[in-house]
Amino acid sequence: MALGEIGNVVKRTLVDTIKGAGDVLGTTIEATRENTVKALRGVKDVGTEATGLVAGVVQGAIEAGSDVTSSAKGAVIGTIQGVGEITTVTAGTISDTVRAAIKGTSEVGGDVTQAGRGAAEGVISVTKDVTLSLEDAATSVGRGAIKGVSEVGGDLGSTAKSVVTGTATGAKEIGGDVMATITDTSRGLIKGTAEVGGDLGGVALATVEGAIDGAKSIGVKAEDAASAAATGAISAATEIGDAAGRTVRNSLTGTVKGVKVVIKAPFAEERTRPGD
User: Fold this and answer.
1) How far apart are the C-alpha atoms of 194 and 262, rounded to whole Å?
2) Is residue 259 a contact partner of residue 226, using CB atoms and an 8 Å limit?
3) What is the pLDDT of residue 180?
4) How far, in Å, CA of 143 to CA of 140, rounded?
5) What is the pLDDT of residue 59?
6) What's the confidence (pLDDT) of residue 269?
7) Distances from the Cα of 172 to the Cαs of 113, 124, 133, 181, 224, in angstroms?
8) Coil, strand or helix: which one is 255?
9) What pLDDT does residue 261 have?
10) Where are the alpha helices (DSSP H) in the chain?
11) What is the dihedral of CA 92, 93, 97, 100, to 10 degrees?
């Protein structure tokens, strides 16, 4: 993905701004927001220009020495805040922004899995600043992350695990509903996986694993997180089709990482899978 003129300008600006900054994340967010507003005023296709801009921000932050997770988080927060000052932030804006952050990271050799986590955490934490529900934001993060990683040849399962950990962390930071966020993220991850022809069962399992890891890191019940992720995955898969629903259900029934997965009605079924 070649950066547009705006993206290149922002990239060069950020490299100089971030170097030597004490609060790298805060500096990235504010510099990105300011440059986004400045760059997008009067632009006809705000969405297209914003995706080029966020890729440039991530690359500039990484080149300036920031870690990948913080670079993606700061870039996404700043870009969404800036877009929100110009126009309405939509689910499509979120999905495209996350996708661009991952692709921009890949182009400079960064870890796209960590970029997915940072972008996911950033999106959820910024929902309080824009007129977009936590539900729509979480679902859009999942879809955008899977599409972005698919386009750069990354591992969908590792990305799903990292993304759901990021959204759970973001929800906890803003006092949002962590379990609902996990469910909605899981739905987005499964929908995105179906759209790119990925392994639904593998991504569903990785999502539950990520939810368990995320729950433990933020101090919420792993059993509840596993149930939320599994229920979201099966719900999304069932909407795709009966075969997809069976594939995902069979991949999750039993225990995952030592945690019993309880699938909530109406998706619970009498099936078993050997424990890990």
Assistant:
1) 23
2) yes
3) 97
4) 5
5) 84
6) 54
7) 21, 9, 15, 10, 14
8) strand
9) 93
10) 5-18, 24-40, 46-63, 68-86, 91-107, 112-126, 134-151, 156-174, 178-195, 200-218, 222-240, 242-252
11) 60
List the chain residues with pLDDT less than 70.
Answer: 1-10, 12-14, 16, 18-22, 44, 47-48, 265-276
| CB distance 66 to 20 below 8 Å | no
How many alpha carbons lie under 13 Å from residue 76 in its C-beta half-sphere? Answer: 38
Cα–Cα distance, 28 to 165 (Å, whole number): 22
Asked, as a colleague might, if the bond just before 274 is cis with ω within 30 of 0, I would say no
Q: Give the per-residue SS3 of 182-202.
A: HHHHHHHHHHHHHHCCCCHHH
Nearest to 71 by CA among 123, 118, 35: 118
pTM (predicted TM-score): 0.88
Orientation of helix 178-195 relative to helix 200-218, angle to 10°: 160
Q: What is the percent of the chain with per-residue pLDDT over 90, rounded to a whole number?
A: 61
Q: Specify the length of the chain in residues.
A: 276
Under DSSP, the state recorded for 4 is: -
CA triple 50-22-74, angle to 5 deg: 20
Distance separating alpha carbons of residues 269 and 253, to the nearest angstrom: 9
CA distances from 109 to 79, 88, 113, 202, 259 (A): 22, 32, 12, 25, 35
Q: What is the pLDDT of residue 3?
A: 44
Cα–Cα distances in angstroms (integers) from residue 151 to residues 1, 49, 138, 221, in the given order: 10, 19, 20, 34
Quickly count: other Cβ atoms within 10 Å of residue 193's Cβ: 33
